[in-house]
Design a protein that fits this description.
alpha/beta, Spore Coat Polysaccharide Biosynthesis Protein SpsA, Chain A, four-stranded mixed sheet
């Protein structure tokens, strides 16, 4: 019988952690890799039969690759704390691992929820991610944010989507976007990329127009407007942060 290790990275996820763990109780091993949370995340996780690893956060790829290296089983399922595995998805995961054919990993679509409603436009549909894979053929690519699995082999597709509840409220959305964009700025800086006043002014406006109009975000109503505005804000933060990094080095 092929066994699965589920990995859940956390940092102050007391709002999500119990439901996240409960949705992957089908796994033979569950690893919670925590970046020294200051809330009740770890205490809540300890109520379950899980392995808790504490590691200082450096970037998303390194954090997940470290947890993978500690997994007992070859097949890994990575679950962000704000995601849920439905009963239907669980059955499809187990079926895929039982008979993977010649696939070394599987991609999933994610249904994105914001303010208690599924978001269907603005670029949030058809969001494919690889979350189930054989660790002997797979590793995260080293990106600081929006990390991706690199595999040496074929990737299959899982039909049932993951439920993604990324932001518990408006302020949480803002904070999370800001953290991501500051990491992206560091990544761009390391690559030698430059910011400018033109980019700081123009690119946020372009992002809003892209999400709200070109990707039909307005069809999601008020929620679509809020998401487009926050995405615009995130681009502003990224290029201001990159500019500040440039100035610091002069």
């Amino acid at each position: 019988m092929i066994k699965i290790t589920a990995i859940i990275p956390t940092l102050n996820e007391e709002f999500h952690i119990e439901e996240a763990i409960e949705s992957v109780l089908f796994a033979d091993e569950i690893i919670v890799i925590d970046s020294f949370s200051t809330d009740n995340t770890v205490a809540l996780a300890e109520k379950y039969n899980v392995k808790i690893i504490k590691r200082k956060f450096d970037d998303f790829s390194s954090q997940k690759n470290f947890a993978i290296s500690k997994a007992t089983n070859s097949w890994i399922y990575v679950l962000d704390a704000d995601e849920r595995v439905s009963k239907e998805l669980r059955e499809e995961i187990l079926k895929a691992v039982k008979n993977p054919k010649d696939f070394v990993g599987f991609s999933f679509n994610r249904d994105f929820y914001f303010m208690n409603k599924q978001i269907k436009f603005g670029g949030y549909s058809n969001n494919k991610v690889i979350r189930l894979f054989d660790k002997n053929f797979s590793r995260y690519n080293g990106s600081l944010v929006h990390e991706k699995i690199i595999t040496d082999g074929k990737i299959g597709e899982i039909e049932t989507p993951i439920k993604h509840y990324s932001y518990k409220n408006f302020s949480h959305h803002l904070t999370k976007v800001q953290n991501y964009k500051e990491l992206q700025a560091k990544e761009l800086f390391a690559q030698g990329k430059k910011s400018s006043l033109f980019k700081i002014i123009v690119k946020p406006k372009t992002r809003f127009l892209t999400h709200y109009f070109f990707k039909l975000g307005f069809l999601d109503g008020f929620r679509g407007f809020v998401i487009a505005a926050i995405q615009s804000y995130g681009i502003f933060i990224k290029y201001v942060s990159l500019r500040l990094l440039q100035k610091k080095m002069k």
